[in-house]
Amino acid sequence: MNKPEKLPQRVRIEADGTVTIAVGKVELGQGISTALAQIAAEELGVDLSKIRVLPASTAYSPDEGVTSGSLSIQDGGKALRAACAELKGRAEKPASEYRIVGTNAPRLDLPGKFAGRASYVQDMVLPGMLHARVIRPPKPFGKLLSIPEHPGLVREGSFAAVLAEREEDAIEAARKLRAKAAWSDGPAAPQDIYAWLKAHVAESKVQKESADAAAKARGVKHFKAEYRKPFICHASIGPSCALARMKGDTLEVWSHTQGIYNLRKEIALVLRMPEEKVIVQHAEGAGCYGHNGADDVALDAALIARMSRGRPVRLQWTRDDEFAWEPYGPAMVMALEASLDSQGNIVSWRHDLWSNGHTHRPGRANQPVLVAAAEIARPFERGPAVDPPLPAGGAQRNAVQGYEFPDHKVTFHYVRDAPVHGSSLRSLGAFGNVFAIESFMDELSDGDPLGFRLKHLKDPRGRAVLEEAVRKAGPFKKAEGRGRGIAYARYKNVGAYCAVVAEVEAGGAELKVTRLVAAVDVGLPVNPDGVVNQIEGGCVQATSWTLKEQWKPGTVSWEEYPILRFSEAPAVDVVVLKNSFPSLGAGECTMGPTVAAIANALHDALGVRVRKLPLTPENIANA
Amino acid sequence: MKFTVNGKPVEVEAGENTPLLYVLRNDLGLVGTRFGCGSGQCGACFVMVDGRPMASCDLPVSFAMNKSVTTVEGLSGKVQKALLAEQAAQCGYCMSGIIISAEFLLQKNPHPSESEVRSALDKNLCRCGSHNRVVRAVMRASREQA
Fold first, then answer.
1. Which residue of B has its CA nearest to A165?
2. Beta-carbon pairs below 8 A across chains A and B
3. What residues of A are in contact with residue B99 (Cβ under 8 Å)?
């Protein structure tokens, strides 16, 4: 993450009184443009309607790294606030004087989207544009052996695509060519990914160690359990898309990437071009929930634009492409051990985690990572997914929990080889780690899940969200097949606090989540309704991951990869605790607490502890 | 090929098997109808054909010949207004198809129950988790319509 910079070009007051702001953080459907506009309007003392937020571009925007990790308000907002105050020539406004920040300003982008106006990169049209489709093997990383001649076919090494004036012709040509092309077999995905991960450790890295032999020796009851999280797809509703155009020796790319500068670096590296000859401009896509196919399709489009004789190209990945080639949220194994003393206090805790890295983003190393980099005529070896250290971490995000135990060790067994390609999915390792930690806490709690947590949690803001979630949830009538569970985490241990109460009905092995209550502390919310929207959405999406989702080889459509539908979505009550602590990002904090609360509620309902996700009838029956 | 879109007669030159979606988006510039899956599984591309919601991504344009097609751009706005009031979206990509399904529901059942709204929207996938806001918006549109 780049440090917030103060650059004069961030904010410009135009002759007509409007204010143009150039920000490095991009709109992913999370409402960040509106929240940043609120911050600028507040500091400059102008009406919100006067603010224009420019789409981020390497041609003029500040380099704020990647829009990820729930950091846009924390970092992007802070930099913008400073730039506005500087422009006004005075100190930043104190929070007590806010009149725009802290209000439910309506989203600036929704009227156009609801009216069906051009809103996404998919809707862009460039003069003289050709439509493109890529031609890839049905499963990853085979080499292209042969492909028949076809009008509009472009090929470089194993990378092949087809161009046509009309979109439906490109689709039809790609379908035919895919059926007739021959590829070598790529590596097969392991049958048992969890056993495979444990057998392929490259390096074991201790994340936290506080040894206390005396405390450990007080342990009289010992527990251990192992939890598993599968590959999960980002599964955006809009498959990835990019436009690209070669103009002389300059390449322009329009992309729904989360990081315009990093993507530019990667494209320049793979195309062996100078970085300053590549311009990447952000254009919105459908929600991505992390690192999906956005960057891969942009590199694909860039490669095609070099072979299209100056014609601009619009490359739309198909639904099959997205399911087959997006980098999935990686599979994980978490093995936990704990000892309790005679008073039921946890005196010793072990958390061992096996996973690939969860950060396989472009432009971070001198080795490219995107799919096409390994397919071109002079291919690159793709670099591995490498995670930053804690507190952000990747696979190990939230593996060190916020409770206080005297003897405590957390180890990340990093697996470098990746037979299935993965990268950042909303909350990264926190989803798996919090599922394991908060399920295990429940297993140890001896029937008092709230009291047991509070006994081990000192942080007053953490205690407050737990107590508030339970209070808001109100009384619960236990009945046959009905259960309630709770879970808690502070995202990354430095971000938003979140506690979730889940209520479920389990008729036979079929599990239905009927209600979720989430209490969060995000510091001062810039846009309270925007926060609630993110929390509700996170709860519902996490429910979908929990109940249904696991990528398997051969997934090509929504038939193989069902997600939660309207009739299945639980009611969600959200409480945002009021305070004026510095604002914290809200987008990811619910994911871990939601999965664990549901698993705990399932246990409450059926007395069955399911430690393998998703909580499908099959996994419940086998638990 | 002649048909009606949002009340206006149109004539397009396209192969008769061309999915209606690409004719709407690329020939007629009506990009509000979004591409989601290409096989009628997600609902992002829903339009009304002679008043019934249909996936346009795998519907040959010839099917629409001499029929009346309504896209999100051609709707009255009551559902859209309620969606704005409820701020019922995150990325918004699935919303055009949801608006079509909701309009159809309210036409045949002006005062649906919450569970009827949910069932009516079950063919539309939403990934951001905006489901409950959308349901509240459709209930609001039902209350506020004349």
1. B26
2. 170
3. 114
Q: Compute the nearest-CA separation of B10 from chain A (Å).
A: 19
Token couple for B56: 């346009």
Query: What does the pLDDT read at residue A103?
Result: 94
Write the DSSP assignment of B6-21 as a string of letters. Answer: TTEEEE----TTSBHH
Give the integer Cα–Cα distance in Å for B137 and A210: 52
ipTM of the complex: 0.98
Write out residues 216-275 of A within 8 Å (CB-CB) of B: 235-239
CB contact under 8 Å between B127 and A571, yes or no, is no
> Which of B26, B93, B131 is nearest residue A120 as measured by Cβ atoms?
B93
Counting Cβ atoms within 10 Å, is residue A459 exposed (0-12), middle (13-18) or buried (19+)?
middle
- Each residue's pLDDT tens digit, B109-146: 999 999 999 999 999 999 999 999 999 999 999 999 75
Architecture of the domain made up of B78-144: Orthogonal Bundle (1.10)
**Fold that domain B2-71 belongs to in CATH:** Ubiquitin-like (UB roll) (3.10.20)
Q: Which of B99, B117, B132 sits opposite A114 (nearest CB)?
A: B99
Q: Are A483 and A506 in contact (CB under 8 A)?
A: yes
- State how far residue A104 is from chain B, nearest Cα, in angstroms: 10
β-pair partners for A519: A499, A575
CATH number for the segment(s) A122-185+237-325: 3.30.365.10
